[in-house]
Amino acid sequence: MALFLDILLIATSLLLILLVLLHRAKGGGLSSLFGGGVQSSLSGSTVAEKNLDRVTLFVGIIWVISILGIGLQIKFS
């Protein structure tokens, strides 16, 4: 079980990083500092952005559950 949770945590961490980087920049953060503040009409549709939000939220929930599982396993071992 410990190996499964470790692999799940690593996989969801990498996937979460990738999904967050795929999001379109919405305003003046660090992305606008490096030239990402310029809006393009080719940046994607709103349906794709909503689906990306849903997938990111789902992976984030799995990530939190795997962290809680590892924490409970450490506590009760």
From TrEMBL:
Chain ranges passing through the membrane: 55-74
Keyword Lipid biosynthesis set for record: no
Major site of localization recorded for this protein: membrane
Membrane topology: Multi-pass membrane protein
Family: Belongs to the SecG family.
Name this polypeptide is given: Protein-export membrane protein SecG
Source organism of the structure: Rhodococcus artemisiae
Keyword annotations from UniProtKB, A to Z: Cell membrane, Membrane, Protein transport, Translocation, Transmembrane, Transmembrane helix, Transport
Name of the gene: secG
Function (record text): Involved in protein export. Participates in an early event of protein translocation.
Matching InterPro entries: SecG (IPR004692)
Localization per record: Cell membrane; Membrane
Superkingdom of origin organism: Bacteria
